Amino acid sequence: MRRADSRRLETGLPAVPVRGIPALGAAERAALEHDYRHGSTRLLRHRSHIVLFAYDLQSQEEIARVVRCSRATVHRTLQLYRTGGRLSLRRRKRVGSRVRWKQPRWLQTLASAMERGPRAWGVPRPTWTAPLLAQYLEQQTGIQAGERTVRRGLAALNYVCRRGTWTVRHKAEEQPDYAPKRPGSKRS
Fold this sequence. Notes:
Blueprint: H1 3-11, H2 26-38, H3 42-54, H4 60-67, H5 71-84, H6 97-100, H7 104-116, H8 130-141, H9 147-156, H10 169-174
Helix pairs in contact: 2-3, 3-4, 3-5, 4-5, 7-8, 8-9
């Protein structure tokens, strides 16, 4: 009796066989081995390893035990390989808010807003805040972006948008009995 069969008898659950993966040619095997040994990411190496074991081992449980991951991970990886081949094992690029600030029109609007200030655009504030910029940019460009996206765009333009610090020093200096702090004082 093979090990997978004895394990199935021990746990009471049937072992899930590896089915539906396409035949593996010499060139495809060499490419998978190259990805396993020299892949650019840990995820690619891990997935390639799982696919290689799918041709050598009998069940997904065996692969999961050898590779030290869950059977669900093995199942998802094999499903990726079935539908898209070796190229689908690579991490997919995320599409969404990360790309928005790279759009030229949005970035140009942000730059002009920073150059002229909020009062020039009819916003009754002395300085921009990230949420206020996000709201203004949505009105002007129609692109909804969050504070983090605005801050990334500002960083790309070499601007920094930080919270203001409340200070009453200017009020204290107006008082006749004001004594400035001594050098090295740790009071703020």
